[in-house]
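Much of what follows relies on a compact textual record of a protein's fold. A record is reproduced here so that you can trace the correspondence yourselves:

. . .
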Amino acid sequence: MSGHSKWATTKHQKGAKDKARGRLFAKLIRQVEVAAREGGGDLTANATLRTMFQKARDASVPLDTIERAVKRGTGELEGVRYESVSYEGYAASGVAVIVECLTDNRNRTGAEVRTIFSRNGGSMAEPGAVSWQFERKGVVSLARSIPEDDLMAVVLDAGAEDLRDEGEAWVIYTPPTDLPAVRAACEDAGMAVESSEHQMVPTTTVEVSDETTARKVLHLLELLEDHDDVQNVWSNFDIPDAILEQVGA
């Protein structure tokens, strides 16, 4: 188990408590709106919208709020037009970072993301310099209390590639297109899903064994995540459990 995976799992578990609910809702609603604009408002035909819809529901976003976001995306209601943009860069010790944004002003967002990198021990990189170190995967998280054999029997036939013990949760990795089927298989078997989404999963990791450096890396990532236009931040650090506990204390 990599430190990166454990940190990502911990963020999911504490996110609803630690982040301002309004900010979290705003980011999820924006994702729903863009998915509807790019692929239409039909959940059956638009796999991306279906995933974003479920992600918002998992975070307890009200159904009527989600439905209004879908209508803004399809043009039935007026709204701000957002576009997707990604930035690549490095944190301390050469840790690779991908920042995914939805913005109504690409120039403003790019300048602000660059400032966060430069003021916190990081640097921006050219497109493609970092992304080759990641693969997009479907990721499903379930309670660790579910027996491993029972879970394996359910998810392998549905398309799961890997099942990992991430300490407090089981984490299933799937091809992006198989994410809905794996989630549905778990739910049909009576297994409560804690979260399901697409992630950029690192294919190689950078070990960060120094506490001071670990704090710098995580501080940069948290500042990026707190930016209103930033939807996701992916990185490839591997911080040992003992240091993660010290940093999180």
